[in-house]
Structures are given as C-alpha cells and as structure tokens.
Amino acid sequence: MTDKLLPPKKKNPQLRQRVPTLPPAMRSRAALGLTAAAARGAFCLQHCDACGSVQYPPRDACSSCLSVDLAWSETAREGKLIAETRIHASPDPYYRERLPWRSGLVQLAAGPTVLCHLHGDVRRGDTVRMDLKLDKAGQGVMIALPVERTPDMADDPQLRSLTADPKHRRVLITDIRSPMTRPLIDGLLAAGAAHIFVGESESWRRGSDHEVIAGLDKVSVMQLDVSDVSSVQRLAAEIGGKTDILINTARFVRPGGVLGADTVFAREEFEINTLGLMRLAQAFGPGMASRTADGVNSAVAFVNLLSVHALSADPQYGAFSASQSAALSISQTLRAEFRSSGLRVINVYAGPTDDEWHQPLPPPKVPPKTLAKTVVTALQEGLEDAYCGDVAKDLEERWRKDAKVLERELTGGGA
Amino acid sequence: MKRQAYDGVVITAPVSVPYVRYSQETAHWWIARALKQLLDVAGIAPRELDGFSVSSFTLFPDTPVGLTQHLGLSPRWLDSVPMGGASGVVALRRAARAVQAGDVDVVACVAGDANRIDSFRQLLSSFSRFAMDASYPYGSGGPNASFALIADAYMAEYGVMREDFGRIAVAQRANALNYPDAIMKSPLTLEQYLSARPISEPFGLFDCVMPCAGAEGFLVMREDEAQRRGLAYARIASTIERHNAFPEDPVQLRGGWVMDIDELYEMADCGPDAIDVLETYDDYPVISMMQFEDLGFCAKGEGAQFVRERDLTITGDFPHNTSGGQLSAGQAGAAGGYLGLVEAIRQVTGQAGGTQVDDTKTAMVSGFGMINYDRGLCSSAAIITGAGQ
C-alpha cells in the first residue's frame, strides 16, 4: 500500500529552488486525442468505424482492416499487467531527477497492449484499472491503477505527478462573498489542504460570512480586490511565494441581453470576470510557474470558474456570457504561457448557479456545494476542463457535436 | 514457388572501422572510412563503384543520395536499408539479388553512425512516431526500458534467471578480449554482471550495449569477380527477412525468425547442427537467448537450460558472438546490424585473427531491429559458407 505523504518540512530559503523541467512533450497529431480525452477525465481510444477493432498507439489507419475512419470512443478500463520495470537510468532531465520510475505493459481487455506508468500498488499479474491523465507537459498519458482504492493511493509519487491534489498545498480563493467559497473551504480542508487564504474586497462591507470564515482553523482572510491592480500586486507580494493553487471565485453577474443592457454593468462584468483573471494571472502566475517543481507543496494549478455559456452565449445574460467567453480565451493563452512550467490551468464550467442572479430561471441549477465538489475533484483528478451539473454537461456535449446547432438552439428556433 | 539459390554471388572484404565511445565526426566521415577500406581491399576506384547500400541513423538531413555527391560516387544501383539491427542481412539479400540479375557488378554495403555527446538522447526521443507518442514519455528509459519489459515477461513465462543472461554476457566478454577493436577491454565475471548497478530492472549495466561511433562494411559481387581480384569470399547459402511478425502477441516472447526458420534451413540444405559459429543480434542477452530458441538451436522456453549446458566462447562447444558482440564490442548505431555479419565473413574465410574459431565453414548470422513501440519489428538471418581456415 502507498506510504502516506508527509507534510513538507519548512523550506530552506538558502537552497536553490528546483527549476521546473518537463517530461517529453512532442506528440503526433493523432496522439493529441489522448490529451483531449485526459483533459476532461475520459478514457478514450481510437475505435475503427469499419471493423470495430481498438487501436493503440494512436494512428491514422486501422491495423486490422486499413480503414481510415478511426473515432475516439470511451473504452473499457480493465487490463492485466503483463510486464513491469523500474527504470534507474534515463537521459531525459525530467525523469532523471525522479528516478527510479516504474513503467509496465498492460494488456487491455479491449485488445491492445499499452506501455504505461505504474501506480506503486500494482504488480505483474494484477488486474488493473487504466486511467488517462495529463502529465506535467500537459500531454495525455496512461497510468495503471489498482482496482481497489486504498486510503492513501493518491499519495503515490507517480500518480501525484499527474494530478493537482490539494493535499499539503496552500490555496488562495479570491472572493469570500462567492456562495461557493464556504463549501470550497470545507472541501479543500477535507482533502488535506495545508492552508487557505481567502480574498475579501471592500472589507468595510463585511457580511456575516467574514467572522465565521476568519475564525476557521488553517484559514486566513486577506484583502483582495481583483479589479484593482495594486491590491492584487500587494497580496501577491505577501503570499505569492506560497500560493500553490489559485481558485478564482470572483464574479460579477447581471441579467439582461445586449440591446437593453447598461454598459456600466457590462464594464463591471469584464472588469471582474475577464480583466480580474488577467490581473491575478499577471501578479501570481510567474511566481507560481517558477515553483512547479518545488517538492510536496509545489505550485500546481490556476483554477477558473466559468459559466458554460463561455462556449456559446446565453442571450438572457448577454454581456455576462461575453465576459465568460473572453475569460475562456484568456485561459487558453495562459495555458500556452504556463506550458513550459507545467502549471495547469483548470477551467470548471457550470450552468446557472443557484443564487440571486439566476433566481427566476427554472431548475436544474448548480448548488454552490456541488460546484465546490467539482473543483476539488478536478484538482484531485488533475483535469483541465471539468463540467459541473447536468446543464453544463449537456451543453458541452451539444457544443462538441455541433457548435452552430447549439448556437441556433440557444438563440431561439430550436425545438 | 521455390526460392532461387544465390549461385554465383559472394560476399567478401569484411571491414570494421574501430569504434570510439564519443566522437565529433559525422556519419559521413565514418561511412567514408569504411568505404575507402572496402575499395582499397578490392582495388576499385570510387568513381568505378557501381553499387552502394547504406544503413545509418545519423545522416540527417542527408540520405544515401546526398552521400553519392559527398563521397564522389556515381553508382547505377543505390540502396538505403533503415532497419537497424536487421540491416546487415537485409542489405546482403538485396545486393546479392541485384548482382545475380546483372543490375550491378559490385555493391559496397556500409553501415556507420556518429555518436556525439547527447546525440543518443536526441535519437531516442524521436526514434519513431509510436516511440515519441507511446513509449518515450513513460520514464524515457529508451530501448533499455522497453526491452526490460520484454525480459521481465520472458523471465516470468519461462522461469529464466538473471544468471542465465549473465552467462551470455560473460562469454561474449571473454571473446571480446581476443578482438582488438572491442570497446570493452577488461574481463567480466558473473558476480560483476549480477552486482552491476541497475539500469532498468531486471537489466543491470552489463545487459546493455555501449552506444558509440563506428562503421562496418562488406562487398557483394560475382564469384568470378572476387576470384579475379584475389579476394577471399563466402557463399550465401540462404537468407530470411520478416517484419512485424505476430502482431497479436501481447508482449514479444518470440521474434519473426519463427515464421521463416524452416525455410532458412531448407534453402541451405542443413540443420542447426551444421552451424559452426553463430552471430546473433545482442542488443540485450535476452534477445540472443530468444534467438537460440527461435533459430532452432533449442526448444522454446529452453534457452536458459541451453546456456547452462553450453560454452559460448570461441573455444567452446557453441561459439557465439565471437568478436564480443555489441555487448562488448560496442553498438555503433546501424553498424550494430552489420557487426555479426562482418565477423561471420571473417570466420568462414579464415580472417578472424584472434577470434578465429577452428575449422569454421558454416556460420549463421541473425539480425533484429527497430523497437518502434513495444517490440523489435525486423528480423533477419543468413547462413554463409566458406573455405574456412
């Protein structure tokens, strides 16, 4: 069984901080299908449309019948570990500093043999459960996990390198007033987070949450206004060096379309939802990116909470949808800019949340508790895109199927 | 259809350019040195050479076409054999048929590779598309890790011990001490083999080859041409070649030889007992053991028992990898796919010097190459005969 991961010792500031290195990142275009599936936590391989045979490694033509119609589809995760090795020598700088490293061959029930990373609890002859995860280079890789979950299995060093687990890490939640902040704090602490900083703007405008949250063990409330550059920079100067996970809960929502809406509200939505994200990334991003190889509590993830209407606008929330689309776009650029560090940008998409600004909408709406749970799970699983609730999942599926059809449905004219 | 014999075609002029661990020189330089020796031995001017076959991993951005201009050749027959460890036999097969058909008079077959600091890492990371996508990102152990997985499964399946692999490595080192160009020059004991630092379990240091720079070559021509030039030569009794055999095997416990071995012996009109010297492709001892089985020297799964009972040194009852193989002579890239064949020509023509096995008339050479993803895809073998010493 996996050894329990111990909290890190206090950092010695005189020692050189380990510089981030990445595992091999180069892939063929076909192999990016693994990355796309891993990003949302799916386990997909190519299946031949003509003969049904399952392919691996990813390729451009079926190795059974030469058809070129290969579709990425959900695949059974069962397999048997038929060979294992512990690598003690590697010319690659990333693996060289993480040796020894275990890898193995798994014969999938679906057919192909997969060369994969091994969780510490699996041995040759075992039946294993395969998972597809993003590695530090942001590429989809396979890992063989034990079929039975064990209490500390997430602490396994090879598995942990593929996730953004909050255990022993320090988290900044940017807005105390978000209804999901409290359940998020509870969820992160239950997941083993070492400390949680909670941002609060306009602290003279204190709500009842302040006293309760500020009184919690391992939680500190800090002044933070994401619409104010100097406020963001001040906080980054104070805690930027110990922010391992940043979860941006700051959000400004006003209902209304485009024609009749007040641009003052629209500007505020962009100010908080879009430029706020940019300010946080500018102030905290470089520091976090420099600390992605910094041991047990290395920096791992920058989390955005987005409306699923970032993908396709909800005309009842026109300017808000636009701010979400812009935030999504910024997160994509951040992914490019954080790529060389391995810092993960996680987007958690939700449908209408169950709060005052979505009050007249019919259910299902996402309760803050559910959204918080999705965020914690996305970190533990190491996802890049997570969809919370039925509305978000439904919309994402329709968007992937045909973005134009979805647009027409959302803008009227669908059944 | 019955395969035509290689009547009238011979293989001659075995040439090895001594290996160097790291070298600033390019593949072009190494290939040029081997080619010069070949042509000098045969008394052929570069411009007269009409056939050229090249195997190399490190010519980029050049191909053998670029080499013709670089080296001042005007061949009417040009081949590129990018099959790693299977290259030697495959180059021979193709050249022999072209000579036999009269498309070409003399083919110079050369394999050579450079090895600069860090070039091995660069070669591994982009060795093949499947390696780039599906093996190198998993610990980046390179072929050591991939073959360690094969060895792990093979040991579990057939009850093989590390000592059994060790016997092969130790015997080859003993052979290499008689081969002046071997990179490894000190003796190796079984204890040293077993206690060596782990590389990728179950492999330790002495399961692995030393990447280095170097070149090997030979000439293929008509028998009368060899006689006219006064060259000692060997005849080609039979050859086989196979790619991606048994794709349904979940892990490689056998090579492609299994598909073609009957034909190899049938064409040579002999059996395993007739083989005086065996040169296998030894990127790892486990692969040599697999070849003992798949080439018919013992039954499948009995390779370990076989090496416990036989003496694999040049004075033993089963002389194997007489120049030390790649494990002790070094692996100069694609030249590793030529090493055994070049040594076999020396053996059957009585030119092997310190490694000469007495009374060698028939030798078998087997090749194995290209771990594209999880297994070696190319297999080849040849039986050659000569007048002996």
Termini Cα gap of chain B: 36 Å
| Main sheet: strands, sense, barrel of chain A | 7 strands, parallel
- Structural class call of chain B reads alpha/beta
- At the fourth level of CATH, the homologous superfamily of the largest domain in chain B is Thiolase/Chalcone synthase
Rg of chain B is 19 Å
Give, in order, the helices and strands of chain B.
EHEHEHEHHHHHEEEHEHEHHHHEE
CATH architect. name of the largest domain in chain B: 3-Layer(aba) Sandwich
How many structural domains in the coordinates of chain A? 2
Tertiary shape of chain B = globular
Shape of chain A: globular
Put simply, the count of helices of chain B is 14
Beta content of chain B comes to 15-25%
User: Looking at the chains present, what oligomeric state does this protein adopt?
Assistant: heterodimer
Provide structural commentary.
- The complex is a heterodimer of chains A (415) and B (389).
- Chain A has 415 residues and is an alpha/beta fold.
- Chain A has two domains: 32-160, no CATH class; 170-410, Rossmann fold.
- In chain A, 31% of the residues lie in helices and 21% in strands.
- Chain A contains eleven helices and 15 strands.
- In chain A, helix 4 packs parallel to helix 9 and helix 7 (263-290) runs parallel beside helix 8.
- The mean pLDDT of chain A is 95.
- Chain B has helices at residues 27-42, 64-71, 87-101, 119-125, 129-134, 142-158, 162-176, 190-195, 223-228, 257-268, 285-294, 303-309, 325-329, 336-348; strands spanning 9-20, 51-55, 77-80, 106-113, 198-200, 203-204, 213-222, 233-243, 277-279, 362-371, 376-385.
- In chain B, helix 7 (162-176) crosses helix 11 (285-294), helix 7 (162-176) packs across helix 12 (303-309) and helix 11 (285-294) packs across helix 12 (303-309).
- Chain B is globular.
- Chain B is built from 14 helices and eleven strands.
- In chain B, a hairpin with a 4-residue loop joins strand 10 and strand 11.
- Chain B is of the alpha/beta class.
- Chain B has a nine-stranded mixed beta sheet, sandwiched between helices. Chain B has a two-stranded antiparallel sheet with strand order 5-6.
- The longest helix of chain B has 17 residues, at 142-158.
- Helix content of chain B is 37%, strand content 20%.
- Chain B has two domains: 9-118 and 213-228, Peroxisomal Thiolase, Chain A, domain 1 (3-Layer(aba) Sandwich), CATH 3.40.47; 127-209 and 236-385, Peroxisomal Thiolase, Chain A, domain 1, CATH 3.40.47.
